[in-house]
Every structure is written in structure tokens, then in C-alpha cells.
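Why does residue order matter? Because the sequence determines the fold. Keep that principle in mind as you read this record.
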Amino acid sequence: MVTGGSMKPVKKKKTEEPELEPLCCCEYIDRNGEKNHVAACLCDCQDLDEGCDRWLTCKPVQPETCEKITDTISDRLRIPWLRGARKVNISIVPPLVLLPVFLHVASWHFLLGVVVLTSLPVLALWYYYLTHRRKEQTLFFLSLGLFSLGYMYYVFLQEVVPKGRVGPTQLAVLTCGLFLILLALYRAKKNPGYLSNPASHDKSLSSSQIECLLKKEQEKTKGFPGTDTLGGLNNRSLKDDMKGSSRMGAGSPAKVKEDWCAKCQLVRPARAWHCRICGICVRRMDHHCVWINSCVGESNHQAFILALLIFLLTSVYGIALTLDTICRDRSIFTALFYCPGVYTNYSSALSFTCVWYSVIITASMAYIFLIQLINISYNVTEREVQQALRQKTGRRLLCGLIVDTGQYNRGNPYECL
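Structure:
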């Protein structure tokens, strides 16, 4: 028994956690939390072995096995880097390998060119609908677009410029156009206008808190006599729309509740929408563009339009220079469809194949650019157009090319004159 004095509390020694050894450039932590090495990428792959055994014995491979094989390959596909090997997105690889192979095969004969150049858009659309149905992000189209720009420029320098028909000024203009495209894409790839949750640091709101917040937002709108039934103030400025965290002018509790995003835990402002691919709400969302692997919203819409415009001008200029070089003494439109003797020389055949590939890409981008200009002229977004078509509230014009939703269209100012 201890008497007298005060007993000093006994301090417990903290258990020191073992320090992890630093990773070398070829080591990494796999999806199972274990240390692995790049050189062992083909070792201990039971799913791949099982899939190969079934394929050799002509047995069907289960979809779950294919998904496991894909996950394993994507986890082990890495490149050496400082402080551990970096993971490479597997969707980047196919365009880097398949595009040069397809274009070179298409240059062998005219019929092969027709088959390959027809199948490429079909394969791209198939992959687009496959990823769009699964609501997954993919770098395939971004990799395809950037690599196509680089590879077309490489073929132009290697096969077209040495023929002596392209001057230094023309080459400089084409090069400047390429750099402007990359700059505009970089700007369009930035934040499209993501909505930040003011309660993101707190726990998720309960149902009673959500109902309370919705009632407060409804009470705020009662003092605005200029509010219309479609959810927008007639004289609301852009500054108010930028700062508003709730949709102004919701005339009913159902309308206010419709603006509540349960995933982002916020009340969306007018014309904002939740992107299921990015997993976040975007202010004045137009659409999710797979070519930049990001949404097109309020903050990057202008840069997106500018990138399309610069690409169209640069692509048409490059096509004209190439056709003028390999098909002399013919107009551009005539040379595109009739260029005799172009397949006698492999260099000219490759250039001609790349021209047609560029024409296909340019035509698809021109269609997107036209739709964007029409939507801007009617003050609607692509998401609002699709929603109006689903709800059958839009008005089709010009054989369905134009869809007037009637919500935010300010009308033709010259009709009143």
C-alpha cells in the first residue's frame, strides 16, 4: 500500500508503427495492398491462365473472368517512375498501337482503304456506346484525338513537306494552328464549373435537415415577384446566378425538391445538372464530352467552341496543302474523290489515306460545331434539348436539326422591328 504523496501516472509508451520501406522505381503497391514489381507483371495471374485454358479448349469464358483479367492487366500495366512505378490507364494504349497499323494497311490498296476507313468510325461508336452505357470515364477518345493530331502532323512532315510544294510560311501557319488547338484543349479541359458543397466537410445531411433546407429555399423565393414558373428570374444577373446556391424561382415544393442533388448534397442552381460520369454537379452543364474526358459547362464552354473552330480551320488547311501536293493540277474537291496514280507510290498512298481519315474526323467535328452554334443561338444546352425530346416538350425545326425547348429562348430580336 502506498501512503503519502501523490501517485504519478504511468505513461504508456506509444507503439511505433513500422516504417514502410521506400519503393524503388520499378516497385509498386498493387490493388491487394502488397508490394509488387514491374518485372513480375506476367506472374501469378490465375484469371488469365483460366481464361487461356478455356479458350484453348473451346469453352466459353465467363464475363466475370474477363472483367478480372482486365482489372489485373490495368493494375499491372505500369511504367518505372521515381518513388514507385506509375499506373498507366489501359484505355490510352489501343489508339497508340492500332491507328498507325490501320492507316498503313489502308494504304496498300484502294479497297483496303475503303474497308478500314469505314470500320474505324464503327468501332469508335461501338466503344463509345459501350462506355456510355456503363457510365465510365475513359481516356480512349482523348488519347485518340491527341495522337491523331500528332500522327497526322508527323506524316505531313515526313511525306508531304519533302516534296517541295509546301513553303515555310505555310508550314509555320499549320504548326501555329496545332499549338493553338492544344492550348484551347488545355483550357477546355479545366474546371467546367463544378459546384462545391458548402457542407462537404460535415457528415451527410439527414432527411429532416434536407426538408428544412428545402423549405428555407422555398421561402426565399416568395419575395421575388418577377419569378417565372420555369425557375428563372426575369432580371436575374449573371453575378446572382454565379453566387446562388439554390434555384431561384421554384414555385412549388416539388420543384424545389427536384433541384436537390442527393449525391452532392446541395440544391442545384438554375440549369445545373449532375453528371453521372464525373460524379459531380456542373453549373449550366451542356454535355459530357468524351474527346476531352470532361464536362462542358459554364466555365469552359467558350474554350470548347474555340477549340472546335481552330481545329476545323487547321484541319481543312492541312488537307488542302496535302491534296495540292500529291494531286497536282486538280481542285481540292476533285482530288479528294479522283486522284489517279496515287496508290502507285506508297508515300502518296499513305498521305492520301491520312487525308481521308482527317476528312472523317473533321466532318464529325463540324457536325458537333454546328449543333453547338444552333444551341447557342436558341440559348439552350444539349442536356436541355435531350430532356425536352424525352419529355416531348420541345419543338423540332429543320427536320429535327433544331430543337426549341421554349424555356430559355429569348426570341428573335428582329421580330419586333
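The longest strand covers residues 27-29.
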